[in-house]
Write a sequence for this structure.
């Protein structure tokens, strides 16, 4: 056994399971360097989860004997597709879909019903005002709060993973919202962790769609406009019941 993880209810995505990016980031801490995490089951909340080394060299997360996720070292060859200013990202976020179309309104990262200071409230919209079909880059702003800090005062890794998570779902969205999708896999390369209070921009764009799999990439830009982290993500289309944990 390598350790334990508890995903507190505050950090949920669906009503009864952890936000995918936050959960992936917590497990990625047990991998040296850049990591890729695959979610096998929705991570349960307020439950001690066991981290253990697997025979194939990966790191596994268990709820008792039930496999929740695996993590491995990876290479993430992603380049930022756009570098909007903070003001441009603010304008893009105003073009997001209606809060009434959001399927997970209390998601820690993108839930519109989260109060400021509770959730991240990252709600991307098309960067190009003419992109009415959401085929291009989506963007939003993010200013990390003080309670996101690690021991060194920088933003903790798991919040970087979280901030890059939901925007890649929005990249597969439309004016009517995004499909019934849950994060299946996320890989993140962190160049540096942002400062608390830094005026960051999150961007994401769709890449491929194969059956139930929706893929996207994303970049987190620091206050200087340069990428501080990039990611690739695979989202899995599920039934409405599975989406909300029924």
């Amino acid at each position: 056994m390598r350790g334990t993880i508890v995903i507190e209810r505050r950090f949920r995505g669906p009503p009864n399971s952890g936000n995918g990016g936050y959960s992936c980031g917590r497990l990625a801490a047990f991998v040296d360097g850049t990591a890729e995490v695959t979610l096998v089951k929705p991570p349960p909340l307020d439950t001690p989860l066991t981290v253990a080394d697997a025979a194939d060299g990966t790191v596994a997360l268990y709820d008792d004997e039930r496999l929740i996720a695996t993590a491995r070292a990876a290479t993430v060859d992603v380049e930022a597709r756009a570098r909007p200013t903070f003001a441009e990202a603010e304008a893009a976020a105003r073009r997001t879909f209606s809060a009434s179309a959001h399927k997970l309104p209390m998601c820690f990262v993108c839930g519109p019903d989260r109060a400021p200071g509770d959730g991240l409230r990252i709600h991307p919209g098309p960067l190009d005002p003419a992109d009415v079909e959401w085929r291009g880059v989506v963007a939003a702003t993010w200013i990390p709060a003080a309670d996101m800090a690690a021991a060194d005062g920088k933003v903790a890794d798991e919040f970087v993973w979280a901030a890059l998570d939901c925007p890649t779902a929005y990249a597969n969205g439309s004016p009517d919202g995004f499909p019934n999708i849950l994060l299946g896999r996320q890989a993140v390369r962190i160049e540096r962790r942002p400062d608390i209070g830094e005026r960051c921009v999150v961007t994401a764009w769709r890449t491929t769609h194969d059956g139930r799999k929706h893929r996207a990439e994303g970049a987190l830009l620091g206050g200087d406009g340069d990428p501080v982290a990039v990611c690739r993500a695979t989202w899995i289309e599920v039934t409405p019941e599975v989406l909300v944990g029924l």
Summary: The CA atoms of residues 36 and 187 lie 4 Å apart. The radius of gyration is 17 Å. The chain is about 15% helix and 30% strand.
